[in-house]
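Researcher: Please predict.
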Amino acid sequence: MTHSPFEYAVIRAVPRVQRGEFINVGVLLYCQQKDFLGARVHLDTGRLHCLDPNSDVADVDTALRSWERTCTGEGPAVVMKPGERFRWLTAPRSTIIQAGPVHTGITVDPAKDLDRLLDLLVL
């Protein structure tokens, strides 16, 4: 078993950007040595509506799914390497879906750690 460093960031839904309030809705994980980039998402609509009762759940869900597709290299991201996609997704932005700070860890199985981080930080 080879231990490899990885980077991850929590995906946040910020329904009213001007207020800066957010809920965790997913996790991105990038492991260069294992050529792995993945996202796991879970939208808790009840929590989202606590921050903004007028949130358009379908729009937020669509945006989250686009982050998953970017990780797999679909659409315009097809020309980008996994590391480039991770950096693009974690770049600061003022949108409803944002990445939090990037953190690091060590993994043997990035997909398993991605699921573990979703359980720990989102669910």
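Model: The chain has a mean pLDDT of 96.
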